[in-house]
Amino acid sequence: MAIPVGAGGAYVVSPGQSLTSWVVSPRVESFFPGEPAPAEDRVGYRFVNGFVDVGDLPCRKAFRATMPGRSIEPETDWPVDHLNLPGSNRRVEFTGFWHVPTHVRRWLRSIWRADADGTVELLLRTCGGVRVWVNGIERVRFEPFLRNVESETRVRLPLLAGDNEILVHSEDLAERDTVWFVEMELGGDMPLTVLLPVAVDRDALARLEALARQVRPARDVFAGAPLELLFDTPPGVDLPVEVRIVSHGHDRSCLAVSETVLGAGEPRLVVAGSERVGSGYHGVRLSLGTGAGKVTRAFDAAFIDDLAPAPPGATLAERKRRALRFAARRGAPRIGRVLAMLASDDGEPAAMAAIVDATLATIDRAEDCSDFVMVPLLWLAGAHGDRLSASTADRIRAAVLAYRYWVDEPGNDTMWFWSENHVLCFHASQLIAGRLYPDDRFLRSGRSGREQAALAEERLGRWFDSVEAHGLAEWNSAAYYPIDFIGLLALHRWADAPIADRAGAMLDRIFTMIALHTLAGVPAGSQGRAYDKELRAGPLTELAPFATVAFGRGWLNGGVAALPMFCAGPYAPPAGLADLVDLAPGRSIEARYAQGLESGKLVLFKTEAAQLSTVVDHRTGKPGHQQHVLDIRLAGHPMARLWVNHPGEDDPWGTRRPSYWAGSGILPRVAQHRDVALLVADPRAARIRWTHAYVGRDGMDEILIEDGWLIVRSGRGFAALHASNGLAPVESGATAGHEVRTGEGPVGWVAVIGSGDAHAFGAFRTRLRASTVTFDREALRLDFSPDGRETLSLAYDGAFSVGGRRVAFDHTGPIPVLTHDSADPRLDAFPPFFA
């Protein structure tokens, strides 16, 4: 981080540090589609996690043909959008999500002060393209324009003695999830002084800078209460503040705006009126100060109407009816809400019309993720077409016939056809659309509806062949199981055998996995793809209401991507799954199975009050994406959650994949046996060389650090973490109270869970203190010897043993198998260590 020079606004940057002090222009956007064309069909129905190279789409081909090397006149008279100040992110980052191909640009400006004429050496990194002007002369033109691929080059900039104006133009083509940043790392052996070219009170700017780094929500979840923000160091003067709360939905709609004042000496800010925003994991956009000196910060906060789960309905049919009514009245403004309104006869015509209009606009523009709304729109047309006006029915028909259903049809969009959830939804859309309009001609393909449906059946057969054999690459994903449900529930309802039967069987599999990983109404566990919101706010995920309806306990929320299809359709989960959801006191189970082509080898251990879930032996030592490898969930509170990961970026509130909390920059080696998991990480080759743990603090009744163990209790469930490099709770800044870091370099982590009463918790702590943990940093070998039990040993090369016996993971099928059940003597040969 740069060091301020005297008052705020001037910084000394040392060699090896990045220059992050800039005045930033507003973002300039323009639609940039290119010419429609078919794309190369690279879908081999062998699905993996992470970004897939799909070649240049028509939009990028046009962009790379016209943008590099063009003449750009330097602009300096733009209004200041915000200041980018030194903080947790070494990059000046504008990463985001755009649903259509969009040319995005920003200008950056700063002053670099030199003692004498000379040159400055920089390592320039970017996703996108960069131009640099020094004192009005263009000196750098670096324009790789590779989609989401970081490129770097070394440059030398001439500086004159005194102050030099530096102007940077950063741009890219945004195609859905877009990594867009510029970073300048100072080389050489001399520091550089950087100043911000704006007329601001430097002392005030320093205060704003500190406040922006420190700000955090006061609680893990706000239950019927207004948002409260905490700061480590209160301002010395009254400070104007604007707070905007926006949804995480497709439209990022604004839910609340508050213009207020953070009082001098006040370490917290209560945002009046924010208690009415409704349940959800919402974005918070904070602006501190006014005018050119304004500083912004973006983060998230969880809101819930009631921490207590909804009372269970007696039957599945009753729970479905209740959820439909909830979705009709309180669902997000998506097409699933209209389906709920019609299915429950509870809807306002004006509200339905507005949602249908927005849905058709999304489809007509071929926005990314439009396949997710096309399927429920087709359900709506098929099930309730007689209740639609003639004009609405005609508009739906026109949109359906004009849509692009696969890469072999010409298009100039950025729709994503290559992940397992999108492939399913595109094929389901093609099949149902063809069946609804069998005699019509589909405009992009030129095929009839019957031909579209026949081709979709063939393609769906390949999709089912893959996932039936390998399982799902996005295992247990609270974000993407609901998307899988869009396609599967629609096929179960609208397709003929054998597709409908295969869809029903896959739904059975998924609900079985949800049952295993749901504790006290919250689906949790290791996940093939996770975001912060799926980890930090379990009851607010789109998956949580499915568990509520299926199993009778939990929370409903505004998610309507697929829930109305579940509730309005004929599918029912297998009988007996409730026996895996809520275990009787004293009972424990372990399940093992594999998911995905890359063999996500999954282990779950569960009691009535605690749950430990891991993916073991998964791409160890390779860069991660969104794989969530080790998860602990306790039953005493819906936010009682812990996990361990290697940060994938610097900013605790960043949005990269992997991010600070979701996924891992470098994947570790993991093994689990019953209620104990071992994790060995080697982050030495990464920018961030330490690992850490997240603690859902407000969900815990007790948090202790004893003899190197972090020990927590929530209700009757408890857990403990140990790291060989030591544990240091973070007590200030954005992650205060929730982050526990370990030292740099190779590290071994031990995770243990248990459950019971106060006496059991005391015994748990006593046994932990009497246990030993050793880690060989050279051999990368972790040994854990619980008090009175055999030693568990894990090596980074993969060898795992219990009591000297090599333990291999041999449950490689995609269907979960119970390998331990304390209620079944046949499956109780090796009892838990602590539970």
Describe the SSE topology.
Layout: E1 3-4, E2 10-13, E3 22-24, E4 28-31, H1 58-66, E5 82-84, E6 92-93, E7 96-114, E8 118-127, E9 129-134, E10 137-142, E11 151-159, E12 162-178, E13 181-186, E14 192-195, H2 202-214, E15 216-217, E16 222-223, E17 227-230, E18 239-246, E19 254-262, E20 268-271, E21 280-288, E22 295-304, H3 316-330, H4 335-344, H5 349-364, H6 370-384, H7 390-402, H8 420-436, H9 449-470, H10 481-494, H11 499-517, E23 518-519, E24 522-523, H12 532-536, H13 544-551, H14 563-568, H15 578-581, E25 589-595, E26 600-606, E27 610-616, E28 630-634, E29 641-645, E30 669-673, E31 676-681, E32 692-695, E33 702-706, E34 709-714, E35 717-723, E36 728-729, E37 739-741, E38 747-755, H16 758-770, E39 772-776, E40 781-785, E41 792-795, E42 800-802, E43 805-806, E44 817-821
Parallel strand pairs: 16-22
Antiparallel strand pairs: 1-2, 2-14, 3-5, 3-7, 4-7, 6-13, 7-12, 7-14, 8-11, 8-13, 9-10, 9-12, 15-17, 17-20, 18-19, 18-21, 21-22, 23-24, 25-26, 25-44, 26-27, 27-28, 28-29, 29-32, 30-31, 31-38, 32-37, 33-34, 34-35, 35-38, 36-37, 39-40, 40-41, 41-42, 42-43
Helix pairs in contact: 3-4, 3-13, 4-5, 4-6, 5-6, 5-7, 6-8, 6-10, 8-9, 8-10, 9-11, 10-11
Task: Describe the 3D structure.
The protein has 835 residues and is an alpha+beta fold. It folds into 4 domains: 3-195, Jelly Rolls; 202-304, Immunoglobulin-like (Sandwich); 324-569; 589-827. Helices cover 24% and strands 30% of the residues. It contains 16 helices and 44 strands. Strands 1, 2, 3, 4, 5, 7, 9, 10, 12 and 14 form a 10-stranded antiparallel sheet that branches. Strands 36-37-32-29-28-27-26-25-44 form a 9-stranded antiparallel sheet, with no helix packed on it. The protein has a 6-stranded antiparallel sheet with strand order 30-31-38-35-34-33, covered by helices on one side. Helix 3 packs antiparallel against helix 13, helix 6 runs parallel beside helix 10 and helix 9 runs parallel beside helix 11. It is globular. The two termini are 44 Å apart.
